[in-house]
Amino acid sequence: MAANEIETGGKCPVMHGANTAMGTSSMDWWPNALNLDILHQHDSKTNPLKGFDYREEVRKLDFDALKKDLHALMTDSQDWWPADWGHYGGLFIRMSWHAAGTYRIADGRGGGGTGNQRFAPINSWPDNVSLDKARRLLWPIKKKYGNRISWADLIVLAGTIAYENMGLKTYGFAFGREDIWHPEKDTYWGAEKEWLAPQDERMGDIENAASMENPLAAVQMGLIYVNPEGVNGKPDPMKTAAMVRETFARMAMNDEETVALTAGGHTVGKTHGNGNAQALGPDPEAADVAEQGLGWSNPDQKGLANRVVTSGLEGAWTTHPTKWDMGFFDLLFGYEWELKKSPAGAWQWEPINIREEDKPVDASDPSIRHNPMMTDADMAMKVDPAYNAICRRFMADPAYFDEVFARAWFKLTHRDMGPKTRYIGPDAPTEDLIWQDPVPPGNSNYNIAGLKARIAGSGLTIAEMVSTAWDSARTFRGSDMRGGANGARIRLAPQKDWEGNEPARLRKVLSVLEPLAAEFGASVADTLVLAGNVGIESAARAAGFDVEVPFAPGRGDATDEMTDADSFAPLEPVADGYRNWLKKDYVVSPEELMLDRTQLMGLTACEMTVLVGGMRVLDTNFGGTRHGVFTDRAGALTTDFFVNLTDMASTWKKAGDHYEIRDRKTDALKWTATRMDLVFGSNSILRAYAEVYAQDDNREKFVNDFIGAWVKVMNADRFDLA
After folding, report:
1. In terms of Cα–Cα distance, which of 333, 341, 193, 214 is closest to 263?
2. What is the distance between the alpha carbons of residues 168 and 153, in angstroms, rounded to a whole number?
3. CA distance 696 to 719
4. Is the pLDDT of residue 77 over 50?
5. Measured between alpha carbons, how far is 595 from 185 in angstroms, rounded to an integer?
6. What digits encode the pLDDT tens for the residues 158-180?
7. What is the pLDDT, as a whole number, of residue 28?
8. Of residues 562, 558, 444, the one with CA closest to residue 490
9. Please, which residues bridge with residue 658 across strands?
């Protein structure tokens, strides 16, 4: 190689794209391999604040000073990004809304609880144009208060303070959202390969809003809810109404809450489309380093608020866009509306023959007035009969509208925080709300040893005790802190009738444990978990280890009145790899469903491995099937699952809907298995874990690791222990 080859453009000493380009990861080479990345999310190696307890630190925050600074920021217009009418309220509300509005009830993922709006893909969604500016405006406040305020809390709080600053009496605010430090790759936002791909790509029938692919809750890739111009960009308020109803239902909102949020969200602020949308610069993830994390540069803005282009629609919804009032209803119902194009070419609705005094003034020049505008979703509030009736109810009682909106805004921005016990700060409301899944305090002062002895002598089998405790706890979702063993909702509708809970077996176990709970003054929730522990301790003794499973009493029992039965439907398991059960065949493989359940429960790949291996030898399979029970000592907490899975004296063959493990020499059938069993031998990472537990010197480690993972699941919803 010539001495000057590098300098003259010859071979580069760095492998081009080795760290960032596609085509270099294992999944690119082997796309059908099981991707365990979903279980590696939020790895501590990416966290710059290792060992830091945000929920403890935020309690030290000067809450009043923070709110005072946010109020001042609302009207502190910056030259580099001027505020509409000198007020940032509309921008901050949109930022908070679009953070919280990614939540969907199907899997509890999304929402504002992690600060994920800072990262791709959400930071670069078409629906989030200019929200990078909102977050950057907050940076001086984040810098000032440092670790005592998370980005997640600050992003949501800014919108709430904006409403207060413009005159709304808010319902309250709770701190306690912890930041993540990299994108949430575990969240599925859709399979489309382009932004704003036609709705048809995620809907089975464009005429049927309910046909939208689950768990998605937005109609197009890159949107929060619906297309503001109409279904697939074609205005039709009645069709849009159906889409609005479906998307809001998928984030746990009823019709009244939907109308309140739509009207209240559009009472303030404006849309931006006074220019050429094609002239915008690339989104934040695609922008040059000189943009320093900002995107969508507005080259024609010229330092004026009225020259900004974001959605492409242009105009305010109300006459006084920086004031909380009834202006949305006054204009929507006070005028007839016609379709027009914005300066950026987007479809929007504008009033016919509007009075000059009802027009909002220009965002930069108060001497000029413009037509207000409405989106197709706004017009849906007028043309849909149910929405129309709710609007008129609000118009007749403005105080009621204020209250419904304030509560709906609180629900929108707190839905993924979990129960009220996780709320921090002086403005956290004390009222119990049914969507918080309230659980009354439980008794912790009872004879635990005596109750355990009675459970042990009750005649219940190890499999019955362990399976029922597991079924009670496995509903926990770390995505929105719902489900879990606390509350013992497994004994209430709808959970008591879920197929995956084996209702007949569940009734039998409850008939034994409920009287014992009453006798000892313990909750049924505690007793179910304690029974599982009794089963594990008995199984460990059978394997030669005398151990005690840690137990924290104090769970409470929820009632039917405390339970919104309909909202629990999405928590119903359709598969459980831990109990080797699949309700039916799905497009997604059984092992991928197992990973999804594992991630929602907050478990690692290693914890999943040890739990599955232990559950198999404890004979907890759904319906008592023998698949994966690689042991002749069922009921003993042994490493037999791993030993026999990795035994090279065997062969593994597909046999119909399951697999057979046969003796390599004699071809005698030894065991049967499912994909959810064999993946622990076929996947290189999972096999590495399985081999650890198959070793002769790790039998005790296996028992201890199994108990540690078990306790983690049983206590996942014990926020009082944190």
Report:
1. 333
2. 20
3. 38
4. yes
5. 13
6. 999 999 999 999 999 999 999 99
7. 81
8. 558
9. 655
- Find the angle CA(161)-CA(162)-CA(164) to the nearest 5 degrees: 60
CB 348 within 8 A of CB 311: no
Between the CA atoms of 23, 26, 28 and 30, what dihedral angle is there, to the nearest 10 degrees? 140
What one-character DSSP code corresponds to residue 446?
S
**How much is the pLDDT for 388?**
98
With beta carbons less than 8 A apart as the criterion, state whether 238 and 88 touch.
no
Does residue 145 contact residue 207 with C-beta atoms inside 8 Å?
no
Contacts of 315 (CB under 8 A, 6+ apart): 270, 271, 342, 348, 350, 360, 370, 371, 372, 373
Q: How far apart are CA 199 and CA 206, in angstroms?
A: 7
pLDDT category at 504 given cuts 50, 70, 90 is: very high
Place of tokens 């464009």: 206
Kindly indicate the confidence band of residue 12, based on its pLDDT and cuts at 50, 70 and 90. Answer: low
Residue 664 exposure: Cα atoms within 13 Å on the Cβ side: 7
Output the six-digit token pair for 569. 């439907």
* pLDDT single digits (tens) 599-618: 999 999 999 999 999 999 99
Q: What residues are paired with 351 via a beta bridge? A: 337
What would the two tokens of residue 40 be?
Answer: 């590696």
Instruction: Give the SS3 label for residue 613.
Output: helix
- Look up residue 504 and give its amino acid: A
Find, among 495, 487, 536, the residue nearest to 717 by Cα: 487
| Averaged pLDDT, 461-465 | 98
Decide if 98 is catalytic: yes
Q: How far apart are CA 92 and CA 72, in angstroms?
A: 13
pTM as predicted = 0.95
Which residues touch 177 (CB under 8 Å, ≥6 apart)?
A: 112, 113, 114, 115, 150, 152, 153, 156, 417
Active-site annotation holder among 42, 71, 87, 98: 98
Cα separation, 124 vs 676, whole angstroms: 37
Task: List alpha helices for 75-114, DSSP H.
Answer: 89-100
Q: Residue 14 — very low, low, confident or very high, per pLDDT cuts 50/70/90?
A: low
DSSP 150-196: -HHHHHHHHHHHHHHHTT-------B-PPPPSS--TTS---S-SSTT
Buried b (16+ CB within 10 A) or exposed e, 321-350: bbbbbebbbebbeebebeeeebebebbbbb
Tokens found for residue 650: 């065997």
Please state the rounded mean pLDDT for residues 398-427: 98
Identify any residues that bridge with 655 across adjacent strands, giving them in sequence order. Answer: 658
- Backbone φ and ψ of 565, nearest 5°: -55, -40
**Tokens describing residue 139:** 């940076």
Structure tokens at 90: 């509309």
Angstrom distance (rounded) from CA 676 to CA 580: 7
Q: How far, in Å, CA of 150 to CA of 421, rounded?
A: 19
Give the number of other CB atoms < 10 A from CB of residue 419. 20
Dist. CA 216–CA 338, nearest whole Å:
32
Determine which of 185-199, 451-465, 625-639 has the lowest per-residue pLDDT on average: 185-199
The overall longest dimension of the chain from CA atoms, in Å, is 94
Q: What is the mean pLDDT of residues 589-602?
A: 96
Q: Sorting pLDDT into bands at 50, 70 and 90, what band is 508?
A: very high
pLDDT of residue 2: 42
**What confidence tens digit (pLDDT) does each residue in 467-483 have?**
999 999 999 999 999 99
* Rounded average pLDDT over 202-207: 95
